Amino acid sequence: MRKILVTGALGQIGSDLVTALRQRYGDEHVIASDIRMIPSGQDSEGPFELVDCTSPHQLHEVVRRHGVDLIYHLGALLSATAEEKPQIAWAVNMGGLYNVLEVARQYDCAVYFPSSIGAFGPSTPLDQTPQDTIQRPTTMYGVTKVSGELLCDYYASRFGVDARGLRLPGLISHSSPPGGGTTDYAVDIFRQALRYQHYTCYLRPDSRLDMMYMPDAIQAMIALMEADAASLVHRNAFNVSAMSITPAELADAIAKRIDGFQIEYEVDPVRQSIADSWPNSLDVSAARAEWGFAPEYDLAAMCDDMIEKLSHEITPASR
Ligand code: AKB
Known about the structure:
Blueprint (H helix, E strand, L loop, with lengths): L3 E4 L4 H14 L4 E5 L13 E3 L5 H11 L3 E4 L5 H6 L1 H22 L2 E7 L23 H20 L3 E6 L1 E3 L12 H12 L1 E4 L7 E5 H13 L11 E2 L3 E3 L1 H9 L6 E4 L3 H8 L8 H7 L7 H12 L9
Parallel strand pairs: 1-2, 1-4, 2-3, 4-5, 5-6, 6-10, 7-9, 8-12
Antiparallel strand pairs: 9-11
Helix pairs in contact: 1-7, 2-4, 4-5, 6-8
């Protein structure tokens, strides 16, 4: 049975991934870790460790002590925060990944690395962006994602580290909020719609981007790491997406489900220019062919489930 370490486990992806991995492999086989402690009042079902990925010593210690053989490395800054703090983004995103790959090399661990649609740039073909194409991102986040893809490939070919990964689109989740991303609007909009029947969006109505519902993303991360290595031609940085949508299209879908919902737009130039530099839609055929990527949720199914789940915790504000 695998022994799995998840870094950045308290983040948007980490909290759902740890739950899914524990259901699959058992609580004691999944070590959640983060740079901060679990908030008081919240319990961990299995082991939790305080780990700063920029500290090689802390990573070595946890991997050795628990006999880890697979690391899902999620600790990183997202695009908008990375653009605000580019020096810290380089140190955390690249320094953290380098330390994880080094410890993986020494302790023979497999590694999952989340790349992103941010690994593409304005000179990349915008529609049905191919798996193998031009990658000249213009953001620090994108620079760390392309460099991360290359570093994973290097560790795989030079040292035999089984480093795999996905180029994730914006992820939509009801269980934990994102923080510091360009695609965060697609989560915030649901919470604001249920509470206030109103949302002010920081992207233009026509900003088309790839998105995926969190259950599909979690399923994809686990399926990729369980896939037979012999069937993987690319192994790393697979394009994945389940829908290509604009804020206006998402707002229409929500308005059909929440009476009186209205959206307005106050564009944030920084996040808009990041979004403008990313593709409209990805070609996911390599992921489908090589390890059976098959997301279940389209826009309608995702909206139905988000609203159903969030309506248990969010009640409309009294007017
Ligand atoms: C972000 O907006 O930074 C992330 C991403 C698409 O990588 N959600």
